[in-house]
């Protein structure tokens, strides 16, 4: 009986081994099928970006510092997610029609993303951009077929702030459509859109004859921005880390990224700490840490000059947007321009990561969090875009020299790490 029992045991072991091997092979094949499955057009290619270990920062801090590679989206930035969400929701609601013009006031990245994805929805793009933004952003927008207006930077309370002009352009596009159809403007000289009126001037030369009206994307106040990250970026981070992360940190411009991700992660696990990293000239650090953003004298609209004092583009603000208002934050850190410049060069040299200014600031935030909570933790941040659209300023040696920001660090000593 012993030999028979032994034979049976061997046979069972062989069967189990074969079954396990079949299961592993089948699982691998299914995974490969998922990976190799083609996506339906540009829109499906947005999101599901890699989460990578930033080796140099992880090794230096004793934490696992992970970066979400949003620069690998088709439009080159995290704002691709926002552009898709805004346009899709506007089309579904009927506020935007195919053939319509999406208008936006943007320092660059959101505008580029809208100009990238709008044609996939059958729409056009009109962008108003401050003239102190890196010139390559305007060049990219024009190459993508967008109409671009460069205007002087002024306070958001001024009627000619780039965001307010973009809002008016949407109204004017709707007025243009109605006039072309020979329809009355509700007995008035102006037509409202998104609760705003055009200013009465004739801007018909900005719009093609077949224009189907306009829609103001309103990335600062449109909660589609928040939803893009609450429904997309946040869940992706949770899945990619298997829920094993201790902290998330990012800067805020519109506030959609830090709000959507922080709210999702803290709803999944309240023990995950979420932080803001804020550049010079922004009041959000004060708001998060002290509850007061600025004194009355510092409020936007009372300043004589542009309130921002940073070379990092697309982040930092002196008001609470609807998107930022959705954030759930445990604290905030301040970052400096020199730190961002040094960090960008450090990551390029040590990790091969060629990152934009906001991405560099986010990495400053990740190190600050690591220093605050100590080694052995997992920290996630956002790598918003690459350095390709920051060549004329953030990566321009002459420009940095004029500001006294020529990089000098050999390592991370600018953050107190030797």
From TrEMBL:
Database matches in InterPro entries: Cys_Synth/Cystath_Beta-Synth, P-phosphate_BS, TrpB-like_PALP, TrpB-like_PALP_sf
SUPFAM superfamilies membership: Tryptophan synthase beta subunit-like PLP-dependent enzymes
Annotated transmembrane regions: 6-25
Pfam families from the UniProt entry: PALP
EC number assigned by the record: 2.5.1.47
Keywords, ordered alphabetically: Membrane, Pyridoxal phosphate, Transferase, Transmembrane, Transmembrane helix
Cofactor(s) named in the record: pyridoxal 5'-phosphate
GO annotation (BP), single: cysteine biosynthetic process from serine
Organism: Clitoria ternatea (Butterfly pea)
Annotated Tryptophan synthase beta chain-like PALP domain residues: 44-385
Family the UniProt entry places it in: Belongs to the cysteine synthase/cystathionine beta-synthase family.
GO MF annotation list: cysteine synthase activity
The keyword Phosphoprotein belongs to this UniProt entry's keyword annotation: no
Protein known as: cysteine synthase
Catalytic activity field: O-acetyl-L-serine + hydrogen sulfide = L-cysteine + acetate
UniProt keyword Cytoplasm present: no
């Amino acid at each position: 009986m012993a030999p028979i029992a032994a034979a049976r045991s061997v046979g069972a072991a062989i069967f189990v081994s074969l079954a396990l091997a079949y299961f592993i092979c089948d699982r691998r094949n299914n995974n490969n099928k998922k990976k190799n499955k083609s996506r339906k057009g540009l829109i499906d290619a947005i999101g599901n970006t890699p989460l990578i270990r930033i080796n140099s920062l992880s090794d230096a801090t004793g934490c696992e510092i992970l970066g979400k590679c949003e620069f690998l989206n088709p439009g080159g930035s995290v704002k691709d997610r926002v552009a898709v969400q805004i346009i899709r929701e506007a089309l579904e609601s009927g506020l935007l029609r195919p053939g319509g013009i999406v208008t936006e006031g943007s320092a660059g990245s959101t505008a580029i993303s809208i100009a990238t994805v709008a044609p996939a929805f059958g729409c056009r793009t009109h962008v108003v951009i401050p003239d102190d933004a890196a010139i390559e952003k305007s060049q990219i927008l024009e190459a993508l077929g967008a109409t671009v207006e460069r205007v002087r930077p002024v306070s958001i309370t001024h009627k000619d702030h780039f965001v307010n002009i973009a809002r008016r352009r949407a109204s004017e596009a709707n007025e243009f459509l109605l006039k072309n159809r020979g329809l009355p403007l509700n007995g008035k000289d102006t037509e409202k859109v998104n609760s705003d009126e055009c200013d009465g001037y004739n801007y018909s030369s900005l719009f093609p004859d077949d224009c189907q009206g306009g829609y103001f994307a309103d990335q600062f106040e449109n909660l589609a921005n928040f939803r893009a990250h609450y429904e997309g970026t946040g869940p992706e981070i949770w899945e990619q880390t298997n829920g094993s992360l201790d902290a998330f940190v990012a800067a805020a411009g519109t506030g959609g990224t830090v709000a959507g991700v922080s709210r999702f992660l803290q709803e999944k696990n309240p023990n995950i700490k979420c932080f803001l990293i804020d550049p010079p000239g922004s009041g959000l650090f004060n708001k998060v840490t002290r509850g007061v953003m600025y004194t009355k004298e510092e409020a936007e609209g009372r300043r004589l000059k542009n309130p921002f004092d940073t070379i990092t583009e697309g982040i930092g603000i002196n008001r609470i947007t609807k998107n930022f208002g959705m954030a759930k934050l445990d604290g905030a850190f301040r970052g400096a321009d020199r730190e961002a410049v040094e960090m960008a060069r450090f990551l390029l040299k040590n990790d091969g990561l060629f990152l934009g200014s906001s991405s560099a600031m986010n990495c400053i935030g990740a190190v600050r969090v690591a220093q605050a909570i100590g080694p052995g933790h997992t920290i996630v941040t956002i790598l918003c875009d690459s350095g390709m659209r920051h060549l004329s300023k953030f990566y321009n040696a002459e420009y940095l020299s004029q500001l006294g920001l020529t990089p000098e660090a050999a390592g991370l000593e600018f953050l107190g790490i030797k």
